[in-house]
From TrEMBL:
The keyword Mitochondrion does not apply. It comes from the Bacteria. The keyword Protein biosynthesis does not apply. InterPro entries: ABA4-like (IPR025461). The chain crosses the membrane at residues 6-26, 38-56, 76-95, 107-133. Keywords: Membrane, Transmembrane, Transmembrane helix. The lineage of its organism: Bacteria, Bacillati, Actinomycetota, Actinomycetes, Pseudonocardiales. It holds the Pfam family ABA4-like. It comes from Amycolatopsis silviterrae. This is ABA4-like family protein.
């Protein structure tokens, strides 16, 4: 399978889960589907499609991090596609956690949905913004 194919299909397999959280947060099916800890498995499958045949290069780049080695690995099509799959899977994992935390702390959907969209594109900003909202909700409930 080509690196371009893996790159091209990584995000689309995650889109249905994002759509459920953003557009149908109150639907019982959304909670039931997202209750599975295996939700990020689909984008991770693409990660393993690339990681296994390139494991030696991946291990070399990760075992003793060096900026030059990592830069070289990421500059390859398989390295970039591999990191893309990693990002998509873990962004989805974080978003799933945010979704359930929002329900626990009664963060309204109209607040959560834009934070999830932000998390799709810039997950560190989305996570920090969500943590601020979550903290405010916890303080106001006390």
């Amino acid at each position: 399978m080509s690196d371009l194919t893996v790159f091209a299909w990584t995000f689309p397999v995650a889109v249905p889960f994002w759509a459920l959280m953003i557009f149908l947060p109150g639907w019982r099916g959304t909670r039931r589907i997202l209750a599975s800890p295996w939700v990020p498995l689909l984008p991770l499958a693409w990660y393993f499609v690339l990681a296994i045949p390139h494991f030696g290069e991946l291990w070399h780049a990760m075992r003793r991090p060096d900026l030059g080695v990592l830069q070289g690995f990421l500059s390859t099509p398989y390295g970039a596609a591999l990191v893309w799959a990693h990002l998509i899977a873990f962004d989805l994992f974080i978003a799933r956690w945010m979704f359930f935390e929002a329900r626990t702390h009664r963060v309204p959907w109209w607040v959560l949905s834009p934070l999830l969209v932000l998390t799709i594109f810039l997950s560190p900003f989305g996570l920090v913004a969500f943590l601020a909202v979550r903290s405010a909700r916890i303080r106001s409930a006390a």
